[in-house]
Design a protein that fits this description.
Low-confidence stretches: none
Number of strands: 17
Mean pLDDT: 96
Shape: globular
Distance between the termini: 31 Å
Number of helices: 14
Length: about 375
């Protein structure tokens, strides 16, 4: 099974394809589409202006909309940018008369599906299994309702207002993160009750919820974590099936990095923090060090600190993770920029990948699609 089959057919049947964008997302999309199972040709990269953009990517020219003229007006345009640039990009394309457009923005569900096919093909080429949640749940028949699967949804008093309703996720349990840092209460479950690290939320992000689940949820058979903007494509029936399945871990479709995971991290964040993370793994979990090196040289990692796992696996992961994060917290320098000061959360995404990559032959791991809610 491949994801987004109709879109895949549209890509393969397009006479000409161009990519709008010339930064990291555009490079990731191009690498993916030019590789198996797509093996497509990209005619050009389009941008609004030359400033800050390269002259070519992978030997393919980067042209302004003005330079391209009428040459690509009938091409399929794939928009490969960060979400924050989308409105301006779409306005520019419409003004220039482009109409055949697909959105592969960084967080988009469609881009996730397209790279999921790329990742599945890579796994198969390497002789590894690629299991999807949907296919595995088709093997499970149960009339029982969900009883002991708890998927917690991290939310914060500072979250932006969303245009899309979240009422379709009534099976999630909202948990307020960073509760210690505000007088506002937006959830019945808060991360500052019981044993907790709520006060560390500015660095630890949704991990304060992860810690709370680890220490305070003693009844769930499966436990998981998602976000107010990023949700698993699940429902009550699928969760009931999950409870009666042989699945150990549910992960999202991984993020694609070029040239590799380490290079992408240090491009966006502090390179010293990455080295400290490796130092922490080598010191505290030496059996995982070779896996950590394999991850940093690879092209994929599991993002968002999103996963669902049998509670004993969930607990084992947290017991492994938080001492490493504490080591990093003590060794890494604080950041003046509030976004970069979330470095513990960023490092944890890669540590999630290291842990489950290390156990990939031990656990039955399946991949689930996620839905991103735009702001």
């Amino acid at each position: 099974m491949y994801y987004a089959n109709e879109v895949v057919e549209r890509l393969k049947n397009s006479r000409q394809i161009v990519i709008y964008g010339a930064r990291i997302v555009a490079g990731q999309v191009a690498n993916c589409l030019m590789g198996a199972p797509y093996n497509l040709n990209i005619a050009a990269f389009l941008v609004s202006g030359k400033e800050g953009n390269p002259d070519e990517i992978m030997g393919i020219r980067v042209l302004t909309l003005e330079e391209s003229g009428e040459k690509y007006k009938d091409a399929l345009v794939i928009v490969a940018v960060l979400e924050k640039y989308l409105d301006d990009v779409m306005e520019n394309l419409r003004k220039e008369g482009y109409s055949d457009i697909l959105l592969f923005t960084f967080e988009s569900d469609l881009w996730s599906s397209i790279r999921g096919n790329y990742y599945k093909n890579l796994c198969l080429e390497q002789g590894k299994k690629y299991l999807t949640l949907e296919e595995e749940l088709e093997k499970v028949t149960t009339e029982e309702s969900m009883k002991s699967v708890s998927v917690y949804m991290a939310k914060c008093h500072a979250d932006r207002i969303l245009r899309e309703s979240m009422c379709g996720y009534e099976w999630e349990t909202p948990i307020q993160v960073g509760t210690d840092l505000t007088n506002q209460r937006i959830s019945d479950v808060c991360d500052n009750t019981g044993e907790n690290i709520s006060c560390k939320n500015k660095k630890y992000c949704e991990l304060t919820a992860l810690y709370w689940i680890w220490k305070n949820d003693r009844v769930s058979k499966y436990a998981g974590l998602c976000h107010y903007r990023r949700h698993f494509n699940l429902d009550n029936q699928k969760l009931a099936q999950l409870e009666h399945s042989d699945i150990d871990v549910v992960l999202t479709i991984p993020i694609l990095n070029f040239p590799d995971v380490r290079a992408a991290y240090i491009h966006d964040h502090c390179s010293k923090d990455w080295e400290i993370m490796l130092e922490a793994v080598r010191s505290l979990a030496p059996d995982y060090y070779e896996t950590a090196k394999r991850l940093q040289q690879g092209r994929f990692y599991y993002a968002y600190n999103m996963f669902i796992a049998r509670k004993e696996i969930f607990d084992n992961y947290c017991e492994w993770l938080f001492p490493i994060l504490e080591y990093c917290e003590n060794k890494c320098s604080p950041k003046a920029d509030s976004y970069q000061n979330r470095f513990i959360g960023f490092l944890a995404e890669r540590l999630l990948s290291i842990f489950f990559l290390h156990h990939e032959n031990e656990y039955k791991i399946v991949h689930a699609q996620k839905h991103f809610i735009a702001g």
